[in-house]
Write a structure and sequence with these properties.
The chain is mainly alpha-helical. It has 7 helices and no strands.
Length: 162
């Protein structure tokens, strides 16, 4: 599983989105954090969470294609596991990684990244949760159209409490 995640997190490309934005937004972004293998813990956690969220939604498709992902790999490693057991196990890992990620975002001593960079990481984590909430909406041409329309075109309705 460790080897799979070490290789699989790269394919999410989360780092290729969040790091250049962080670098361009924050002049004091540490350049050495842009190099592969030298990512800040918060970036690695974002990549891991994204990979595992995607795996939860794509294991059926990948099984049909003869590919492996963390859900299927975990089932192989634990012969007594059914698919539901493996999914529950991966969900626990995601929750653990998410807690660790939030701690890194909120606690200054856990990451030397500037606050705006941490905020970018947090924003993208939310986006990836949206992509992979209940099903793989990232691979769909139509799944997120309502969300996009709501975000870009529909006016915000703010109710004030009197």
């Amino acid at each position: 599983m460790e080897e799979y995640l070490r290789n699989g997190i790269i394919s999410t490309a989360a780092h290729t989105i969040v790091l250049p934005i962080s670098y361009l937004m924050e002049s004091c972004f540490p350049q050495h954090k842009l190099k592969p293998g030298n990512y800040d813990n918060i970036t690695t956690l974002l990549m891991t969470i994204t990979r595992l969220l995607n795996d939860l939604q794509s294991y059926q498709k990948e099984r049909e294609q003869g590919k492996i992902n963390s859900v299927l790999l975990n089932m192989r490693s634990h012969c007594s596991f059914k698919i539901e057991d493996s999914i529950a196990y991966i969900e626990k890992i995601i929750e653990s990684k998410r807690r660790e990620f939030v701690e890194c975002v909120l606690m200054d001593e856990l990451s030397d990244l500037p606050k705006p960079c941490k905020d970018i990481h947090m924003s993208f984590c939310k986006v990836f949760y949206m992509f992979f909430n209940k099903k793989n909406r990232y691979d769909s041409d139509t799944e997120m159209l309502q969300d996009i329309k709501k975000a870009l075109y529909d006016p915000v309705n703010i109710r004030r409490l009197s």
